[in-house]
Amino acid sequence: MWLALNYFQFFDNLIAGFNMKLFSNKTSPYARMVRILILEKEMTEKVDLVWCDPWSDDENFLKINPLGRIPSLVLESGLAINESIIIANYLDSIDEKTPSLIPNKYKENVFYLMGLGQGIMDAAFSIVISKKYLGRELDNSILNLRRFNGIRRSLGQLEENIEKYSHEESITLGDISIAVSLSYILFRIPEMKINDNYPKLSKWCERISSRSSFESTAFK
């Protein structure tokens, strides 16, 4: 069973160390990407989850990650690694028991998908946060329209290429990045109508999302 600590339990037991600790929550696409990787790599015995609210600006958490962002991975040494894509690469690199999620055979394809997935995730997250804190007047702003257009162009490219760059025999970090981004849009920006406008991509995402690692980390 994957150990999940609450925020205060973590700081009460920080000195004890033992496992790495991943600061996370259930609605962050960035944190979810790392959580899925941990499940796929069978590393749940090595990484404990610590649920937290990065928007609370808690002084203890800001000492770990001065940027106030999640996910943040605290190593056994106490050193913290920040930013989801870096955390994911690190965890993949230190585990030798399971196949790498960035296999050399498909490395270029994986990085192509990772790049698009991260870009889509950034744009979608910015749209959601902007609406939450700045209101609907931002909807027709040049900045927001640019984000929407960037997402649409990226989804259009993936609609044409996803079967070419994704490999059915094994899941990769690129697949995870794209699927989490799409799931986040379905969760937070349903008006983009991914299922209607990008049928091939939607079908691909549905297949990937049927994995237990995705089902157990579904957005809530």
TrEMBL record:
Q: Which Gene3D superfamilies match?
A: 1.20.1050.10, Glutaredoxin
- Highest taxon of the lineage: Bacteria
One GO MF term: transferase activity
Among Pfam families, the record links this protein to: GST_C, GST_N_2
Q: Cite a GO CC annotation.
A: cytoplasm
Stretches assigned to the GST C-terminal domain: 102-220
Protein name in the entry: Glutathione S-transferase domain
Q: What's the source species for this entry?
A: Marinomonas mediterranea (strain ATCC 700492 / JCM 21426 / NBRC 103028 / MMB-1)
Lineage of the species this protein comes from: Bacteria, Pseudomonadati, Pseudomonadota, Gammaproteobacteria, Oceanospirillales
